[in-house]
Amino acid sequence: MRLAWVAGGISLQSPRRCLSHRPHASLKSPSDGGFARRFLATTRAGAGASRYTCAMPQSLNQLEERLQYRFHDAELLCQALTHRSHSAANNERLEFLGDSILNCSVAAILFRRYPKLDEGDLSRVRANLVKQQSLYEIAQVLGVSEFLRLGEGELKSGGFRRPSILADTLEALFGAMYLDGGFEAAYAVIERLYTPVLEHVDPRTLGKDAKTLLQEYLQGHKIALPQYTVTATHGAAHNQQFEVECAVPKLDIKVGGAGASRRAAEQAAAKKALEEVQKMPALAKPKAEKSAKAAKKRAAKAAASEAKKADQAAGTPSPETQAKEVPKDTRDAKDTKDAKDAKDAKATSIPVPAMTAAHGHGAARVAIPAAEKATDKATDKATDKSADKAADKVEAAKQPPAAA
Question: Which residues are within 8 A (CB) of 170 and not within 5 positions of it... i.e. 6 or more apart?
């Protein structure tokens, strides 16, 4: 590093880059790098120049406004935007740090946002929110490609449009924010960027493939699982194309899908089948009716409970209590009537003289048939009287009425 004294000012020259080069004779100064940096910073500040020492196509103030974060150390922002193809002082280490900050922040956001989601679903949702495609989409919204520092080879090959480079740069920015302002600062930016994404995310389906979603949907409606059949295979062995048919017999659905592998073809077919199944309103109707019935039942139960509490407070029995007591009273009345009938029957029964001990067991056996015989005789006598009365009435009915 050296200072060159030139006409009209002082310029800082280095073996790799000259910030200001003029073809004049120069005077060597002491090799004091610290003095040169302090002098250069003072000169820029006095001239109102940018606080960023890295040469950028646009002012980094725009990126800070989009991130809604102002860096205290502008060099961290410059390094986060520098790809390894540009120089040795690149963003790879910041990317490593930012990856951990991002995972921790998204995990905390999901933990607070979805309190009823279990550990497996939380991990699945987080993995899909921090994957390359998700980061690439956020980087595009921020316009990170406008501020990238790339080498000549990457610039010519369109590296500023490559998803992997943009995703890595966004992670490096999160790492730079952590070093510059702490975890809370980085967390606030990450939460602000992911809030619009989470508003359009269904945590129950995010990250699940088409086959899994179709299977869960059919099982939820008690329908047999779909059947996958390979219908055709095209191309050479190293570049085959598969065609698979997905069938749901109960719903009369048959759709096909194609892919470079059997699994890819099955996923394509399952996606089409899922779209067809979801178009059928009849599948969603029973579940809605079931929910309505359940809600109605809960409301009736709650009303009955409130009425019971009110009756208990007033001291009057509820209709349910009265309904429960009626069968008990009926049983008591029936038991009383049966006891009365038995008592009457005992009072009108013919008394049987008791056998003395002298007659022994044989006399007891003779007394029992005698009592039965007396009872039968009394019954026959009563029956005969009833029959005679009925016959007299019939004869009276047959006779003609007397003349007046």
Answer: 98, 135, 138, 139, 142, 144
Is residue 209 within 8 A of residue 228, CB to CB? The reply is: no
Nearest to 97 by CA among 150, 185, 193, 173: 173
Of 95, 168, 171, 180, which is the active-site residue?
171
Counting DSSP H helices and E strands in the chain, the numbers are: 14, 5
* Cα gap 32→39, rounded to integer Å: 11
**CA–CA gap between residue 177 and residue 180 (Å, rounded):** 5
| Res. 66: pLDDT tops 80 | yes
Summarize pLDDT for 329-350 with one digit per residue, the tens: 555 655 666 666 666 655 555 4
Respond yes or no: is residue 392 known to be catalytic: no
Q: Which DSSP string corresponds to 133-188?
A: HHHHHHHHHHTGGGG-B--HHHHHTTGGG-HHHHHHHHHHHHHHHHHHH-HHHHHH
- The catalytically annotated residue of 95, 99, 180, 266 is 99
**Pair of tokens at residue 116:** 């009823």
Examine the residue annotation and report whether 202 is marked as an active-site residue of this protein.
no
Task: Please state the pTM of the whole predicted model.
Answer: 0.51
What the block records as the tokens of 172 is: 């490096």
Residue 170 amino acid letter: L
Q: Hey, how many other C-beta atoms are within 10 angstroms of the C-beta on 328?
A: 9
